[in-house]
Design brief:
404 residues, two-stranded antiparallel sheet, alpha/beta, six-stranded mixed beta sheet
Length: 404
């Protein structure tokens, strides 16, 4: 795993609980301390003022100092029809954007198909769009970098952003089978790699993700949802659902006769790939290195197509709510703590129950104390080795910085 530097600024380092005195440095430099870093231009945001006596302990993130510095990745989804490629592509995009700040875009190979076919034309069109996306500079990151490292001509500013990830998939695998970008054979996968190597402006990491299902229950469940969505969209009559499932099973069988899975005989060992069998029941990785690829492996290992419920709650009333103020990091009021107590009961009676049975559940909060205090009365019993509602704190859930 690549070495990472934590970017943070905590209150309470000074003798009176405040930040220590600043040392004299050139404008725009980053203060170096044993345990944390923050940009000098944001220092005043952490100091209490008359209008904001309870500021946040961490400044708003600067894109130029985050995560995967300018790396480019192309993910290609592989597998038989109705294996969840479109679903996984959407989930992966949201994960990379939310947790890693990456600029992630999905490319549906079927969007580039013409009614007459035209494989060569669709190949070129998709490549052109990929090239534009992967080589585009992040203007916001460059502006932030001006304050982070100084002059705009500083060599460190090049491609300093939170990375760009292109996710390629086919919403209709049978239509896109002959397309190079489908990656449906060893030859096509090689051609994808060779084409991306022609991008001279940036270095691109190519990763194949193959979804495999050996559990017939998962396959049938995916098929049923696929056919039901067609009926919902008016593309199929409700009375034809069973016939639709049989038709799709025939399409899958025809596709399987031609499709070439990622080879484990050594002929594709130089490629980077992930094989997900039955949505994380078994995971095979090959030639996967680096911070982001390993985070992707971890995420995909826990993905599934089963429906589940998500409950959203506002924090209880805070001291700034009473004053009509935005931002800051105030605690809850007495009314806010009453709400927190009621939320704890609701979580135990409703959130953690399904058909009367206790089910595993997760709890996420922002890093602000008002949300953490709101979750303080939620119980955390251990259920079969699972710590129920164990709180995970994510800065991504903090409110958008409201200004000074």
């Amino acid at each position: 795993m690549a070495n990472t530097t934590e970017v943070s600024a905590e209150m309470g380092d000074g003798p009176d609980g405040s930040l220590p005195e600043a040392t004299h440095r050139a404008p725009g430099t980053v203060e170096e301390r044993p345990d944390s870093y923050h940009v000098d231009s944001q220092r005043h945001l952490l100091q209490p003022t008359d209008s904001n006596p309870l500021p946040t302990s961490v400044p708003p993130p600067i894109q130029a100092l985050s995560g995967i510095m300018g790396e480019r990745h192309v993910m290609v989804m592989l597998g038989l029809p109705c294996r969840g490629k479109s679903f996984t592509a959407r989930r992966l995009q949201k994960y990379l954007q939310f947790f890693h700040g990456a600029n992630c875009q999905r490319f549906d190979v079927c969007d580039y198909l013409s009614p007459e076919g035209g494989s060569e034309e669709s190949f070129t069109d998709l490549y052109d769009d990929l090239q534009k996306f992967l080589t585009k500079d992040d203007a916001k990151a460059h502006t932030n970098m001006r304050y982070a490292v100084g002059e705009l001509d500083d060599p460190r500013k090049k491609n300093v952003d939170s990375g760009r990830v292109a996710v390629l998939y086919a919403s209709n695998s049978t239509r896109a089978f002959q397309e190079t970008w489908s990656g449906s054979s060893k030859e096509r996968r090689r051609m994808i790699g060779e084409q991306l190597e022609q991008l001279k402006e940036v270095r691109v990491k190519l990763i194949f993700v193959e979804l495999m299902c050996t559990d017939e229950r998962i396959v049938h469940s995916n098929l049923a949802r696929k056919v039901q969505s067609l009926a919902t969209n008016g593309e199929m009559d409700e009375q034809q659902l069973e016939a639709g499932i049989l038709e799709w099973k025939k399409k899958i069988l025809d596709y399987q006769r031609k499709y070439v899975t990622m080879q484990e005989d050594g002929s594709e060992d130089d490629l980077s790939y992930i094989k997900l069998i039955n949505f994380g029941q078994k995971v095979i990785t090959n030639n996967m290195h680096g911070y982001l690829p390993m985070r992707i492996v971890q995420f995909l290992s826990n993905i599934h197509t089963k429906p589940h419920s998500i409950y959203l709650s506002r924090h209880g009333q805070s001291e700034y709510n009473v004053l009509g103020k935005l931002g800051g990091n105030p605690p809850l009021t007495a009314y806010g703590r009453m709400y927190a107590q009621n939320l704890g009961k609701f979580a135990a009676d409703v959130v953690c129950k399904e058909s009367g049975e206790t089910v595993p559940a997760r709890l996420w909060t922002s890093s602000l104390q008002r949300t953490i205090e709101t979750a303080a009365y939620i119980e955390h019993p251990v259920i079969g080795g699972w710590l129920q509602m164990a709180n995970r704190v994510y800065r991504n859930l903090d409110e958008i910085f409201a200004g000074e």
